[in-house]
Design brief:
The structure holds 2 protein chains of 2 kinds.
Chain A (H helix, E strand, L loop, with lengths): L11 H35 L2 H16 L2 H11 L9 H27 L2 H9 L4 H31 L11 H12 L2 H32 L2
Helix pairs in contact in A: 1-4, 1-6, 1-7, 3-4, 4-6, 5-6, 6-8, 7-8
Chain B lengths: L7 E10 L2 E11 L4 E5 L6 H8 L7 E6 L2 E2 L6 H12 L2 E4 L11 H13 L3 H14 L15 H13 L5 E5 L7 H16 L3 E5 L3 H7 L2 E6 L2 E6 L1 H6 L4 H15 L1
Classes of the chains: A mainly alpha, B alpha/beta.
Chain lengths: 218, 257
């Protein structure tokens, strides 16, 4: 049985819908992981250990266990305690928090690396520590880690395929559905791979633009 | 003159790190509009004393007063933070390494604190930024980012940033020490201008010539004590203390090398 890509156009609408879901879930999780990362980093560096402790446990959970398991836990597990999330929301939260923990590590290192004189200068003007962090220290730290955070975001895009297991009709699941109807796995997986690649290129383009804008402000 | 109430008053300042005493019972009174220079070898405690004024390096013992407010009041943490943030708005500080905010433009560096703390509108902030940058001769760089400025230009912006809070006192912590020699003068000129406007200033410096030409009073510090103080012509031309003489001789020798 040879390859036959002529079946693909008939299922293009399903595939393209899958592309949209993948972009949606990646964008949602990327935004959550970015701001979540900043939030966790500030908690880890600047709060009392009583506040820090639950976040440490949380961090351990998200770094030390498989993402797949985390998604199951959020989607299927939380129902038992009365939290019934739509699959898309569960996927965004799972992916977002997972990568927030990784981003937090990067941002913490960058915050510590910001020159002490920056905080001093801000405090000398009368800013509180919180104001100085928000306006002076954290923005600089975030600028420094945009490239590695970008790498995390590319990984996030690829890991978004995992949310197919909780039933979000993103690109991988859409390809599987098309395969189920046509028994042509090779063709549809190649098509899905091509679309992932294109989304990837788009993301890299956006990241490069952000980096360039930051460079201009140096 | 002598019975004038001091504007800035440091009373019996002591500071130690473990067993090491960096400040050993120092008192300093500065009247409104006075300009005081603190000179001395490195490690003498002069920067520590300056940084104690706005409680950046809190004293172990002693009091610092600005007019009728004690700066280093002992208060519960939250109240202290509120108090010190208020007090610091009145005390401008300029650092050796400028500490401009590199992610903000010159304009934003100057307007950040006034906008956040005094609730200035965009228009008011713009006017303030122009006024202060005009004063330090940096108005034509208002849209630049700090990375594109020379050291002297950075320091002038840093001075404008401090002035934008309309402080009652300005503290200079070796403001020209990190500058290439040919850039020192432009910063000194700005400081002279402030002197002519009768800004109260405390200046930690290695620039003896500058100290002599602008200051009303000079303190020579060594090993945590004020060894000698007086008017500049006295300290620089005819010091009583042997340590002061030695320090100035060495300094002069270095300067002429």
């Amino acid at each position: 049985m040879g390859l036959d890509f002529s079946v693909v156009p008939k299922f293009l609408d399903i595939i393209l819908l899958g592309v949209l879901w993948t972009i949606g879930i990646t964008a949602g999780a990327a935004i959550l992981s970015f701001f979540g990362g900043i939030f966790f980093a500030v908690i880890a560096l600047y709060t009392h250990w009583i506040i820090r402790l639950p976040f440490r446990l949380f961090e351990w959970l998200f770094m030390g266990t498989p993402l797949l398991l985390q998604l199951f836990l959020i989607y299927f597990g939380l129902v038992q305690v009365g939290i019934d999330l739509p699959a898309f929301v569960a996927g965004v939260i799972g992916l977002g928090l997972h990568f927030a923990v990784y981003n937090s590590e990067l941002i913490q290192t960058a915050i510590v690396a910001v020159d002490r004189g920056q905080m001093e200068a801000a405090r000398t003007l009368g800013l509180s520590r919180g104001q100085a962090l928000r306006k002076v220290v954290v923005p600089q730290a975030v600028r420094d880690v945009i490239p590695p955070i970008g790498n995390n975001m590319i990984a996030l895009l690829k890991d978004s395929a995992l949310v197919s297991v909780i039933g979000v009709s993103e690109l991988t699941l859409s390809a599987q559905r098309a395969i189920g109807r046509t028994y042509r796995p090779f063709e549809f997986y190649v098509v899905a791979a091509a679309f992932y690649y294109v989304i990837n290129l788009g993301m890299e383009w956006v990241l490069r633009r952000i980096e360039r804008r930051i460079q201009a402000a140096r | 003159m002598t019975d004038e109430k001091p504007f800035l008053d440091i009373r019996n300042a002591k500071k130690s790190y473990g067993k090491l005493e960096v400040l050993k019972d120092i008192s300093l009174r500065v009247n409104r509009g006075q300009i005081v220079a603190i000179i001395g070898p490195s490690g003498s405690g002069k920067s520590t004393l300056l940084r104690a004024i706005n409680d950046l390096d809190p004293l172990t013992a002693g009091e610092v007063w600005l007019e009728d407010v004690q700066i280093n009041k002992k208060l519960p943490h939250r109240q202290y933070e509120k108090h010190i943030n208020q007090v610091r708005q009145n005390i401008g500080m300029v650092f050796q390494h400028f500490n401009l905010f590199p992610h903000l433009s010159v304009r934003e560096n100057v307007t950040l604190a006034p906008k956040m703390l005094k609730g200035l509108s965009d228009d008011e902030a713009e006017e303030l930024a122009r006024e202060q940058l005009e004063k330090v001769g940096m108005i034509d760089r208002i849209d630049y980012y700090p990375s594109r400025l020379s050291g002297g230009q950075k320091q002038r912006v840093a001075i404008a940033r401090a002035l934008a809070m309309k402080p009652k006192v300005m503290l200079f912590d070796e403001a020209t020490s990190a500058l290439d020699p040919e850039l020192v003068e432009e910063v000194n000129l700005v400081m002279k201008k402030l002197a002519e406007e009768h800004m109260t200033m405390v200046i930690v410096t290695h620039e003896m010539g500058f100290a002599e030409s602008v200051c009303d009073r000079v303190l020579f510090m060594d090993q945590g004590v004020v060894v000698e103080e007086g008017p500049p012509e006295k300290i620089f031309r005819n010091p009583d203390n042997e340590r002061t003489q030695n320090f100035l001789r060495k300094h002069l020798a270095n300067a002429n090398r």
